[in-house]
Every structure is written in structure tokens, then in C-alpha cells.
Amino acid sequence: MTMKTPCKSINLLFGLIVVLTNLSAVSWATGKESVPVLSEQGKVLEKKYAGDLDATQKEISAALPAIDESKKTAFEAARTELGALKAPSEGAGQAAHKAYQTAKPLAEAKTLDSARPLLADLESLLSSDALDGKLMKAAILRHGTPAGLAEFAQQSEVHKALLDKLFADEVLMKKILKSGGANGGEYGEAMEVYTAILEASELARKPGILQRLALGTALHQPWLNGKEKGGSVNGIVFTDHSNPDGQVARFLHFEKAYLAKELDPQFKDFNAWECRFITNDPYTNEEATWGREMLRQFRPDHITNPDQKWRYTRIVKSDLPYTSTRHDDSLGSPQQQALALGGICGRRAFFGRFIARSFGIPSRRSTQSGHAAMNRWTPDGWVVNFGAWWSMNWCGPQGGLDFYLDSQAREHEADYMQVLRAQWIGDALGQEDVSLRQYGQGGDFWDGLAFYKKRAVVEASNQEQAAADAELAALSAEEARLLGESDKVLGDGEVQEIIIPEEDKKIVVAEDGTITIPAVACTSPKNNTEKVAFLNSWSGGMQIHYQRLGSRPEILRYTVEAPAAGKYELSLNASTVSGKYEVIARINRRTIVNAMLPYTKGSWQRTKPEVIELKEGRNTIMLTFRAPNRGVSIKDLHLKPVK
């Protein structure tokens, strides 16, 4: 992932890496990266798969209706005209840019209009499932390639049986292809991973979210832990990290978290395509568990944030400062270090993706020129966090606009099946696919028609989302980069008041004289401010969060009635995510005590007791933190009599 850095030479290096990565993706797609090594048995299988593909192609060709040549010619001409428009260079001048911005939407509208008559003529074909069995088999053979599938099948009878099972199961083929197909065209390997997960989990063998998660995991990570990426890798690889614990262990981790009700309530409704973007990343299962526990204790408000674009990921803005990226193994795992130390855009975007996925929210990387962001699912559609709009980002071989269009079209299942059938026809006929990176460019007739079917579906049903996109889309790349690196969020409103139940403010004196003061029982402030947030605790009751953000420091004031004068041990029940720093306590406006907040990695922990003196009756305690401070959550204060 490209990262913002002040060093130009490092920027150039990352740029070169991105270029080389994309070249590799292209070479995989064209079969130039490596050639499958086939045994004699493998060559026999390759011949069989190639024969199956050839026979299917002939059957499909014979079954297709005649196409109005004048309409087809108009569509192809409009696509050619649109493809000839090239964005001017940055130094081309305002007139050239204005001319391009005027011509492009007109050419796009003309192409879409020319596609509509064809789509109307072919609706009965694309709405029917009569040819699905042949079309789906052809699509898998085309993208898996006869040689690539033979390379897998030749390994053993068990491997061959997995592919035989796939080709014999039209329901499974449809699930797989509706979910985006196997990464790298590795259908045999995906079947191997899927089977391994089903063997490990009884619940995954039953229809429901866990079966969909198993399938999504297998399709996006079809390479078993410890194996090279599927031998030759036969198609475009949608780049993302594999996970260090392996797909089966990762699946079982999420199964356990789901059953324990630790994941987002919406997790249960995700389809297999969305599940592709949950389980793959280089964090460990242990780190994912920590991420959920940390947020529940340190910032529970981010878990219930009604603005779902920033649910969970708001922790990056609030508590992961933009600063030079450093490492310190003494602070714990890579994700704990990231939150403790802060970092530049790459680390911030990765942590955002990590914390969203830890709660079962589909997320993916978003590379941008000189910057790194992330994309994530919301109930209103996929959005960009920490960066520019979709037109300015990409993930591996796929441009942001292409992904965004696909995600929107998928919301309309019946129409999206027409998209898939048009794509499958193109696969069966051996036609070229539309470019994933260059939005709508290239490709032959059928895949081009599939692309414009998506455009037609989205244009007809997505007016509200288009309006919601406008604010972010209007930002320039530089404006969006600066916003991504800042702690601000578009549309932030005023500080909201919260109701604090009297029960949660009740001060308790135990039989031994120990006084427990709820953090929210302060006499000042009495409600949310820019610096202090009164939060509902995940485990019940309330807590205060003294924020890293906020323009002016605040003093937390407490009034406590001591049953007897004398010395007391003062301690705080606190949660922190950064290194030790100081809290200042002032007792009865006279005595000042400096205490150190421990580094708790987000868990609750008592500070080291500090001895103070209280008078009988009313006492005041004031707490504040030296600026610049990092965030700290406080559950309560303890005052224990010194015997």
C-alpha cells in the first residue's frame, strides 16, 4: 500500500513497487508470468478441459439470438469515441481540462443511451437461466484456463474430484460466480480451502452467514497456508494480504466471535462477495480479539456510532495521530504499536481496515497517488475513509470506480444476474474483458454490454447515493489527502448532550471506609465538551473519556464526603492505548499529586496508589492532564483509607 511520506525518494520507490505490482497482475492475467508445468496425466486433463470449453463455445454460439447489427454498430462506435477521449496532463491548461470535463460526460451518456436498445432486445436472453449451466462452466474454464485447472487436478484423484464436484454442482457454481469467482482463477484451490473449512465447522455446512463466510474466504484466499499461490496463477489477482493464521483458523476465529455476539449486528446478513473482504489481512487472530476488547473498553462510543461510515474506524481519527511512523516492540503487537505511536497515512488506513474487519465489517485497501486510504461497507453502500473519492483510488488491478459501480449494481440481484450472464457469454466466446483499471475501457461486445448494464441499473436507482457522494467527490486529490491525514470528519456536528442517570453518579462508601467515585460523578463538567466525553460503558454503567482532541484543556472536579480525616490511597481505574503519561491531582486546592497513567493496551487497570490527605466531611479533587495528551478513559476513582 502506498504511503504518504515526506521523503521524495521513498515516494518514488513506493510508486515503482505499485507499478511493478500492477505489471505482475497484468502478466498473470495474460498468462505471461508462468506456465503450468503438466505431467502426462496433466496434459490429458488439459486436453479434456480445452475440449469441454470448445464444445461449450459452439453450443452457446448456436443458442444465441441474432443481434441487430445497426444497434451493435452504434454501441461500438460510441464506445470507441469515448475510449478516444484522454484526460489532459496537469500542465495542459485550464481550457483543455474544461473541454475534457465537458466532453466526457456527454460521451458516457451517448454510450449508455446506445446500449439501452440492445439491452432491451436481449432482456429475455439475459433474464433466463436456461443456459446458465453451460455458461458458468465456460466462465470457470476460461478464467481458470484448461492448463491451470489441469495443473491442480493432476496432483491427485482427490484434487480432480474437487473440480469434478464443482462442474457437477450448478448451485455451487452460481454461488461462486455471483461472489466474484476464485482469486487468480484458482478454482481448484478455492474448492480445497472451502472443503477444509466445511470439514472443520459443522455450522459452515449449513446455509447461513457462516457458510457464506467460508465461501468468501476460500474464493479470496484460495491458497492454503504454506502453499505457493496456486502454481501458475491463471488470472488477475485481486491483491490483498493473506492472513498469518491460515484460512481455516481465521474462519473459526470469526465463527467463535459471531457466536459470542462480538461482531457487528449486521454481520449475519453479509453475502459471500462481501465476506471476501473480512478475513484476509496480515493481522493475527489474537490481534483481532484484542481490537474488539480494546474498543469495547477504551472507546465504546465508536462501536455504536450512528454514522456508520465512521463506526469503528473513527478510532483512527480520535486516537491514532498523524505523525512519523515508528516501531517499538515493547509496546506489543503491530496493531498495538500503531495505536500507541501513531503513524502516516498507510499505518492509519491499515489500522482502520483492521479494526473494521475485527468487528466483521467488509473493508479493503485503497491506494491513491502519494496516499493510502481504505474502502468499507455501510448499509448505504461502500464508502472511502481517510482519502479521496473513488475516481482517485485503486486496489491492485481494479480501479476504485469499477469496484464502486460493481458494488452498487450488486444491490439489485435480478439485474445483476443479467450482468453476469452477459459476462459469461463473453467468456464462452473467448472475448476480451473490459479493463478493471480504466473505467469501462477496452473489452469486446459482451463484456462491454455487461458494463453498461451495470451503469443503467445504478443510474436508475441511485439518485440519493449520488447526492451523498457529491461532497467527497467535489474535493480535489490534495484536499482529500489533507482531510485524510487530519483528525476532522466531513459533516461533524456540535457536541451532543447525554443523559447521565443518577444511579451511575452514586458515590459508594464501603464498610472499610473505601470510597468509590464514579468518573461521571464529577461536578464539572456536567456533560460532554470538546475535550471530555461521557460514555456508556460496554459492560454497564458509564465512564469518562478525556480526549486527545479538543482545543482547550479541561479540569475534572469531584466533591467527596470523607467519613473520617486521614490518609487515603488514591487510584484511578483507567484505560489507555499509549505510553505512560502524567495525570495531575489537586486535593482541596492545596496539595498537588502527580501520578503516572499506565500503558494498559486498552484494558482496565488501576493506577499505582498515591497517598493523599482528606479532611472529615467535604473534600474536592481536581484532575487534569498535561498537554499534548493522549486519550484516556476513566471508570472510577478509589479512595482507600491507609491503616
What is this structure, in a nutshell?
With 643 residues, the chain is of the alpha+beta class. The chain is built from 22 helices and 17 strands.
Describe what you observe in this structure:
By secondary structure, this protein is of the alpha+beta class. The chain has a domain at 502-641: Sandwich (Jelly Rolls). 44% of the residues lie in helices and 15% in strands. It contains 22 helices and 17 strands. Strands 6, 7, 8, 9, 11, 14, 15 and 17 form an 8-stranded antiparallel β-sheet that branches. Helix 2 crosses helix 7, helix 4 crosses helix 20 and helix 8 (157-168) packs across helix 10 (187-200). It is elongated, with a radius of gyration of 29 Å.
